[in-house]
Amino acid sequence: MEFDASLPFYKSNAKKIDEINRELGDKKTLVVIPTYNEAQNIQLICQAVFDLKIRGLSVLVVDDNSPDGTADRVRQLQKSNSNIELIVREEKLGLGSAYVRGFEFAIERKFDYIFEMDADFSHDPREIPSFLLAIQENDLVIGSRYIQGVNVINWPLSRLMLSYFANVYTRLITGMPIQDSTSGYKCFRRNVLEAINLDKITADGYAFQIEMDFKAWKLGFKLKEIPIIFVDRFIGQSKMSKKIVREAAWVVWKLKFLSLLRKIE
What we know:
Layout: H1 8-12, H2 14-24, E1 29-35, H3 42-50, E2 57-63, H4 70-78, E3 84-88, H5 95-108, E4 113-116, H6 128-135, E5 140-144, E6 152-153, H7 157-174, E7 186-189, H8 190-195, H9 205-218, E8 223-227, E9 230-231, H10 242-260
Parallel strand pairs: 1-2, 1-4, 2-3, 5-8, 6-9
Antiparallel strand pairs: 4-7, 5-7
Helix pairs in contact: 7-10, 9-10
């Protein structure tokens, strides 16, 4: 799989990308990609991101010491692309803490816009321009699978129902006006991440996504959902587990109570 400027997407969206580059000016964008055993995907996903030709765009890979050599693949890519950054952690510590580490890096380096994105192409990199247009008038842009019907491909019905009703459950408990609060494809302005106390973020998986959305909403930031199509991975293994589902179920109550006590930070 390759994404290059000869593809119809890039020809038909050349004006949009030109518009984005004018809007961005000297602003910097960081795409944070957590990895664990993504050696088969990482080169392709980085290529797809950079083929967009968006000004000031960098990629940060946060790898949990993958035994398949993911970090080594990234080091090879760095030899020909100075806009690829790599953080290797000592062990598998989870998705939420990987994103937090990436957010800390983004704040330290003063990136203006910060993306969350999976390495396995379930999040289409070609949607990045739509996020960047939307973030110009918003603080957090969420790629939603459910804002225009159900846009999920290759999931079994059981997992689709679990995801859909987890979002219904989250809305009912928290009151948060988001159709897809468990989405992992999103873009933050840096000031949102600076306002959230990242040291207090302990959730992982679905729960991490809910917690970040909820805290941004409660802190008064402007959230917007844009439609995406989610395609389940073709290469590698899913990281979903029962533990992740259980954590999400109780985190919404934790957030609700903290909100009632006015202890959201």
